[in-house]
Amino acid sequence: MTTTATTTALRIRELHKHYGSHRALDGVDLTVRVGEVYGLLGPNGAGKTTLMKALLGLQRPTSGSIEIFGGPVARESLGEVGALIEVPGLWPQLTADETLRIHARLRGVPQQWIEPALELVKMTEARSRKVGAYSLGMRWRLGIAIALLARPRLIILDEPTNGLDPVGIREMRGIIRSLAGEGVAVLIASHQLAEVAQVCDRVQVLVAGRTRFEGPLTGLALDGNVEAGFFRLLETADAGIR
Ligand SMILES: Nc1ncnc2c1ncn2[C@@H]1O[C@H](COP(=O)(O)OP(=O)(O)OP(=O)(O)O)[C@@H](O)[C@H]1O
After folding, report:
1. d(Cα 188, Cα 200) in Å, to the nearest integer?
2. First to last CA, the chain
3. What's the mean pLDDT in 200-212?
4. Using 50, 70 and 90 to split pLDDT, how confident is the model at 2?
5. pTM score, two decimals?
6. CB 203 within 8 A of CB 217
7. Which one of 17, 46, 74, 124 has the fewest CB atoms closer than 10 angstroms to its CB?
8. Helix crossing, 166-181 with 136-148: angle to 10°?
9. Gap from CA of 50 to ligand 1 centroid (Å)
């Protein structure tokens, strides 16, 4: 394996997905490195879901390439990926412990891996409480623990702070940063700048299937204001769309 392959978790090149004449993805490049939190930002319809489906092997791109840890999207490389696309359906009568034990058994993961997953999402103390009594933030965290069970090296989170209160949002940011600190590559898809602003190392802004910006968030700033730069970018991209 080359050095690039070991430090690059995800590399997408010239990705196209066309639905008839509609170009949902129109030549997207994206690279997520090990230990990095990368934000995929874009308004509704930008192509974020299409891109995530393609990289999870749920949808075949029209053209372009996707490499996960240097390999194609296939059963083996997807074993390195954990994804949380929605708050997972959880059985309210079960505790977090029981939920994780079931998932571990279903996925052939050793039961000893439950403890570190619980610790990473700061759920150790709540582990014996029934999920039905959990807040939305706790459900999200348990969802992440489930995604972490098989020790993925790349984790994909879709709108991970959706519906959370400020405390939940802060906790989620802390968890995402500690995942990166453990050497996990994190890809977050969001349509809100605020969601990714404090947690991502780099972002990509996607509008109508095209990359409009990639780099550290500060690079988006207009007169020192990142939010103003972001909205300006959306407006100018909108104006220039086909
Ligand atoms: N199966 C499909 N057939 C036709 N067009 C589709 C299909 N799936 C998505 N699209 C179109 O492709 C574009 C990108 O959709 P996508 O769902 O990837 O965007 P998104 O960035 O995830 O938006 P949202 O945040 O609203 O989910 C949209 O214009 C959408 O209408």
Report:
1. 8
2. 41
3. 93
4. very low
5. 0.88
6. yes
7. 74
8. 20
9. 6
Both tokens assigned to 30: 């994206």
Q: Which amino acid is at 43?
A: P
Q: How far is the CA of 16 from the centre of ligand 1 (A)?
A: 13
What is the CB < 6 Å shell around ligand 1?
Answer: 19, 22, 24, 42, 44-50, 191
Centroid of ligand 1 to alpha carbon of 150 (angstroms): 30
Q: Are 151 and 81 in contact (CB under 8 A)?
A: no
Tokens of 133: 């009594």
Burial of 160 (0-12, 13-18, 19+ CB in 10 A): buried
Q: Which tokens in the block code for residue 221?
A: 């700033």
Smallest CA-to-CA distance from 189 within 117, 63, 86, 89 is with: 86
Neighbouring C-beta atoms of residue 194, cutoff 10 Å: 11
What percentage of the chain carries pLDDT values higher than 90?
47
